[in-house]
Amino acid sequence: MNNKIINKNRIPIAVKLVLILQVCLLLSCNVQNKIKTNKSKSENISENQLYYGINKFNTANLLNPDSNELKEWSMCDSINASSLVNGEDLSLDLRLLLETIVKVYPFSGDKNRFTELDAKNIINASIAKSSTKSKVVLGEILGELLAKWRFASGDRHFQIQGISGLSKFINKSGWRRYLYRLDVTDNEEHAKILNSGCTWSSMSDSIYPKRVSPWLAQYDNENSGIVEALFTVVYGDIKANTLICGTKEIELIPHNANDPTKKKSSLKDEKNYTFENIDGFSWIKIKSFSSRFNTELTAFVNDAKQHLKNKNIVIDLRGNGGGSNRYAYEWIKHLVKDEIILGSAYQRYSSDVLAIRANHLIIDRIKLSTGKPAGQDKNKLEKRIDKLIEQIENAPEQEMKYDGEIAVSGKASSKYNGRVIVLIDHNTASSAENFVFALKALPNSIIVGEPSGGFIEAGEVGVILLPRTGLLWGIPTKRFDFNVINIRTEAVGIPVDFYAPNITKKQIEDLNVMQ
Known about the structure:
globular; single chain; 3 domains; 12-stranded mixed beta sheet
């Protein structure tokens, strides 16, 4: 027969090229995802390497967007929390992290909350632990570091980005969230407790007790129906089962504590914004405020007039991890006539602060150049990077300063007089919480569900890329003091008016508490 014989082992040239590229990539990315540079931050690193040099700008933290090492890093698969890393490399990178925190962190000057000494003690303990071993499990060191940091400061924005499996190590170090109900039934006692301030008797040596802030909410008691009670959130394994409020000791009752390992719902193949108009209710669901959903979020803002046609607006923010504030603030302008003052902002303004903010954009630009998705348009990225670099060249070195009010200016001809029902859970975070605060300022709003994630008192997160381990660390550079409610919410979360984590549409329509 003259038929051609097909060689089943033959591999098409295009496939060969792909395989060769993947092999080369694996060779260039070692198991630690380590960037091939031994340069110290203080050295004048040339422009073809990871950072711009100290002699070019008044900071050593600014990444070089044309760096081959940075492109190599972006193409490597992320390491995970179970990865083994060189202990000495990790300890040197943590020293670099500490140097940067001292310059840019917005809470280290707050003597009643978190000090520079606290930061040094926490990170130096991890440096000592990692430097004594040749190989360490990444999650064991960083999980303990982050748990201690959160217990001391409450700040959840300070974190490593892109490391899978880290949560279990943080939880193992004691950072687990529990919801408690206070065993108090007298309404007069409620007011006294709310005004007295409370601490945990078992944690008197920590800054964390100052963050205990009970709140009054309603819930559906299976025996008594809808009743009022005091609630509080706590992290860690509290040995004592009482809360000290003034001179009174109050017993705590576990109240349907959520599973800390519960995962957020995936956005894959789901719409980010949905709107239904049913029987006098505007049902709105927003899964993320990330700018990568710009088209859908712009539609959300443009649909505001349609939402306001009903006397009841239900906004479901459960699972919304945040993103940009601008969509939420633009939407709420349609509901109010006057300006809403939510609080005040504070920040350091220096070349180091601007550099780590620019790094966030530079990494997005690198991702785009290597074919990976990023949250922003390329042209907008270029303009924002150029603007920040121009500011870095002329930036003064300043300590913390007042950065203006957090406010939303209304543009409605008359205010919206209907009800606004906001659904939140422990995965509602960051800019989604800012939205909740703005809505809570409305006299006709009610917050339903369970306390939010508590990612709200810090923002403007910049990043530093640690050169030996390839860890990308997020550091907030601005702090927010909200005055909408008179309690601290970072790590604790925004309290709800009605505790109902699994509430249904029918229950929302029927509950008398909403009237």
